């Protein structure tokens, strides 16, 4: 299944092309992606189906979805979205955070100091999951990473449910609608120096946004009724991973004076075009 997920991610841009230009569905690459998606769907149905036939365990997400009378297909996709896509997106965003911290050593040091001063940690030096929420600078680093590197730059395509008008432009019922989150997150009318990694902009003491417009200019998980169902899990996983990786290791340039390449690769998720290269030195925990 991992191979199917990886292949589906690799060719997922074809679906974005079809959403923008429907005739593109006849391209060979799109047909290949559809075949891969169907294989992945069948594999998921088989895997999750075996689980659903067994007695439900406490707090089982799959059984909960079915108990709410959701269609089986929707339940299966929701599970895939939360766990399969969630793991891939969390891993990619963690790499972005580490890469940005290699580029910005001062921010990395601030984060390390906050972790050391405001967490108890386990006997093995692991930052506890129930403590990451109180680390203000950690949360700022996570948010600034998601601002600069939104995992789904064009969000998930939606469909207009009725005829409507958007800023004077008619939008017919059934029209695919995509939101450019990447552009929102780099809007200079909202963000000071949007190209710079500045976690401080998300601290309570700072003037994070300019005016009311700001609340709609940071949407890494989307918004509204169709917001990412794995949002809270994703934020916790990301904060937990980044805090422990920075607490345990110092991250710096692999080659003295040469910062790692952070070129972006636009697929289903915003990934690094090249693997992150860094010098990783264990800290004295």
Q: Give a quick account of the main beta sheet: strands, pairing sense, barrel closure.
A: 2 strands, antiparallel
Taken as a percent bin, the fraction of beta residues is 5-15%
- The helicity comes to 40-55%
- Globally, the shape reads globular
CATH class of the domain at 96-282: Mainly Alpha
Q: Calculate Rg over CA atoms.
A: 21 Å
**Class derived from helix and strand content:** mainly alpha
Total number of helical segments?
Answer: 9
Mean pLDDT, nearest integer? 84
| CATH architect. name of the domain at 96-282 | Orthogonal Bundle
Organism: Cinnamomum micranthum f. kanehirae
Cofactor: heme
InterPro entries: Cyt_P450 (IPR001128), Cyt_P450_CS (IPR017972), Cyt_P450_E_grp-I (IPR002401), Cyt_P450_sf (IPR036396)
Protein name: Putative CYP719
Architecture overview:
46% of the residues lie in helices and 9% in strands. The chain is mainly α and 285 residues long. The strands form 4 sheets. Strands 1-4 form a two-stranded antiparallel ribbon. Strand 2 (164-166) and strand 3 (169-171) form a beta hairpin. It is globular.
Brief write-up:
The chain contains 9 helices and 8 strands. It is 46% helix and 9% strand.
Key terms:
Cytochrome p450; 9% strand
Topology:
Blueprint: H1 2-10, H2 13-20, H3 28-52, H4 61-67, H5 72-103, H6 105-118, H7 136-148, E1 158-159, E2 164-166, E3 169-171, E4 176-177, H8 181-185, H9 231-248, E5 249-253, E6 264-266, E7 270-272, E8 278-282
Antiparallel strand pairs: 1-4, 2-3, 5-8, 6-7
Protein name: Putative CYP719
GO molecular function, one term: iron ion binding
Cofactor: heme
């Amino acid at each position: 299944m991992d191979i199917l997920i990886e292949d589906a991610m690799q060719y997922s841009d074809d679906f974005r092309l079809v959403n923008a230009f429907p005739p593109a569905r006849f391209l060979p690459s799109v047909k290949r992606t559809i075949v891969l998606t169907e294989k992945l769907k069948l594999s998921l149905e088989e895997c999750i189906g075996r689980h659903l036939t067994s007695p439900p365990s406490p707090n089982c997400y799959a059984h909960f979805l079915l108990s709410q009378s959701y269609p089986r297909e929707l339940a299966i996709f929701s599970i895939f979205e939360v766990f399969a896509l969630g793991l891939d997106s969390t891993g990619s965003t963690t790499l972005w955070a580490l890469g940005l911290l290699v580029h910005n050593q001062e921010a990395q040091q601030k984060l390390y100091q906050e972790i050391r001063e405001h967490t108890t940690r386990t006997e093995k030096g692991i930052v506890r999951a129930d403590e990451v929420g109180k680390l203000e600078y950690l949360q700022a680093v996570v948010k600034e990473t998601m601002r600069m590197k939104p995992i789904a730059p064009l969000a998930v395509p939606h469909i207009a449910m009725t005829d409507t008008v958007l800023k004077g432009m008619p939008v017919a019922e059934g029209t695919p609608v995509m939101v450019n989150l990447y552009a929102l997150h780099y809007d200079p009318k909202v963000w000071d120096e949007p190209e710079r990694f500045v976690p401080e902009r998300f601290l309570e003491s700072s003037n994070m946004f300019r005016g009311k417009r700001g609340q709609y200019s940071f949407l890494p998980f989307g918004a509204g009724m169709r917001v990412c169902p794995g949002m809270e899990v994703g934020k916790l996983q990301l904060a937990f991973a980044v805090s422990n990786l920075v607490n345990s290791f110092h991250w710096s340039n692999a080659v003295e004076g040469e910062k790692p390449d952070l070129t972006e690769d636009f697929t289903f998720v915003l990934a690094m075009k090249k693997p992150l290269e860094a010098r990783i030195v264990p800290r004295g925990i």
